[in-house]
Structure formats: C-alpha cells, structure tokens
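User: Can you predict the 3D structure for this chain?
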Amino acid sequence: MFGKKGLHVVQAAANRLPASFNSDATPLISSSMMIEAKSSAFPSGLEGRARALFLSPAPGGGQAQQGGNWGSSGNNWRSMVHEMGHELSLCHEPNCETMQSPLHASLINYDYSGQFNGDPDKIQFSRGVFSNIRLNERDLNERLPYGEDELSFLANSPHFYPIRSLGENVTSVDFNRNGVHGERGVVADINTGTYHGVGRQFNQYELGYTYSAPALATLDEKIAILQTSVPGIESSRYFGEDNTLEDPSLKLTIYSGSSPTSDSTLSTTDVARSGTNISGNATMAAFGNDLVIAAPSASRILIWTYRVSEDGRTIRRIASSYQDSEPGEIDLVSTTEGRNAYLLRWNQSNLLTYVNEVSVSATGAVNFGGWVPIMKQDGTPLKSAFPISGFWNEQAN
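Assistant: Here is the predicted structure, written as structure tokens:
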C-alpha cells in the first residue's frame, strides 16, 4: 500500500460472543455492555493493532469511544461508518471544538449523518473545504467566499437556509432568515439542525429535526411543545433506507403530565408549513385552555390561537391574524391579569426592543396595542446585542 492515499481496511476474525448477545436487541448502549462484549470478543493479540465494531441485527444507531478501538452499531452502513469515524478520533464538532457548525459537512456531524444535500446516498466525510471558516454566533458574516454550488447543501435538510449568489465565489447565507442577504454582524443560533431532547433524561423524547428552537407552555396538568420538524426523520426511521423527506412544518403537540415521552402524547397538529416563510423562533403562551402562537416573518408577525380540550386530545384552531412589523426576534409573555400579554420584538438593526400590549378575547382573537421601545430608568432606550426574552413578575408588575 506504499504511496497510496486513503483508508485501507484489513478484516480479522473476532472471538465468538456468548449466547446472551445473540438477539435482535438494539445496538449496545451502555458502558457495561460495551465492556462485557469487548472482553469476550476482542482478540487479545490485536490490542493496539486493530479496531472493532459490534454489529447488531437491529437498524438503529450506535456508539463508540472517541479514539478508542471498540464500538457498536446498528445494521446499516451509515451508522457503521459514523461510529468507525469516532474510533478514528473524529468528533461531531469540527476539529473537536465545543460548537457545532452547519459548514461541518461530514457524516460524523449528526446534521449530515442520515443525508447530505437532501440525498441519503451522498453522505460523506468532510473534505476540509470550509476548514478555514470560523462562525461566531455573535458576529456572523453572511457573505461566504464560495460559489453557490458549493454551499447549496445548506438550503436543504436540516437547516434550509436561504442562499443567494452575490457574485463570483461570493454567496450569502441568510443565517437569521430575515430575508436580507449579505448582512454582517448577525446574531443567530446556527446549532439548530439536530435533535432536541426534552424530559428528565437527555433524549428521553426526540423531537426531530428542527431549524427553530422549541417553545413550551403548560395547560393545567398538560404540557404543550411547539417545534419545527421534518417528517420522515423521526428517531425510529432515522437511519432507514426508505426515508422520504417532506417539507418542514411548525408542529404543536400536547402531552400529559410534566415530562413528555412518546407514550404521553395526547394530540398533535401542524400550525404552519414551510411556505409560511417563518424567519425566526416561534413563541407561545397559554391562556386557560387557549394557546396563542406567534412567529416572525420578513414583514409581519403571524398569530394563531388554538383551543385545547380538557383531556388534551383535541386541538382546534379558533383564530389567526397578523401584525405588520419589521423583522426581528420575538417573545410572547403572558401575565396573571386575565387574558393579557406582552409581545416583545428585538430589532437587530438598532438593537432596541419594542413591546406591544396585547389581549386575547374569549373567541381567541388577539388585539394589539402599539409598539413602544423599552426604556431604562434613566429615560434612555434599552439596547441589547442579543434578543431579549421576558417573564411576568407579579410583585414588581
């Protein structure tokens, strides 16, 4: 193999595993199972000279020790290659840094381990094309020095960023999805491509792929979760061979109790489809059994009101409207004073946050006041380099 580039694999037989491992169980997920399997199967004479992967008949995922010589995988080639990448010291994050990047176009990145550029058969290890780019969420430059073809994968799952050519080898990626291309100094969350775990244990319930942060609200003994998902990439089918990606939707789900699991789902509905042109994180607040959902777009704030039955098994849209507005991140803050709330809007261009006092009628209609800037005690406008969220303090009012 002298003089040839690439990874060359030489297969070697492992020891036979005990009968206790001969089942259709999911891949090894606990450290104790991994240790037990390795002690039984890994030939002692190959320690330090070989790496191994325990394969399960099930089609799920797996795990492997970073830079180690032993791991496990479900019976699908995407998972196998992913876990072997970990054994070769590859990390989910680029260069094993602490922050994920949508430019880390590698199957070791969860964003692209099931597909790349919308095609499940085109997953790849990173070619290092973007290795010199450092993305700072507090100071993003939407103008990247690459051709539109090189960045076209960002317009597909899981990020769906709007992209636009600005000239030869210059492409804009609208990281904050406000419809304005080529901005500098952008503040945006760019780590929203993979699963979000909700519940007392991480990944107790997998919400699915998302390009907007989840929003939560409580309704008596029920919890409501609003999230943007792409049907076809649920956890049970994540590595399947027949995945069909559909348009993303803003989905509302009602769960019983305070710790959502797949078994506690009461009802679910699509609030909006991808054509709605939502440009930022949605927000949600509860008023009795009514849920008011607000989402920003390029020129207005979209509003929906849903009524949830007492048992949580029925969700019905009872009103929808919009409020003309400049683009910006928003937050809906409910109060303890009847069906009143405050809608906050952060303007990225002038760093001001505006507030609009709203009320929700018994029919679900949302009535707006006027936008006014939030002022500090000295009478000057409050400025923030980041979007502002709020909560209702009943004592301070």
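DSSP finds two helices and 19 strands in the chain. Residues 195-211, 232-245 have pLDDT under 50 and may be disordered.
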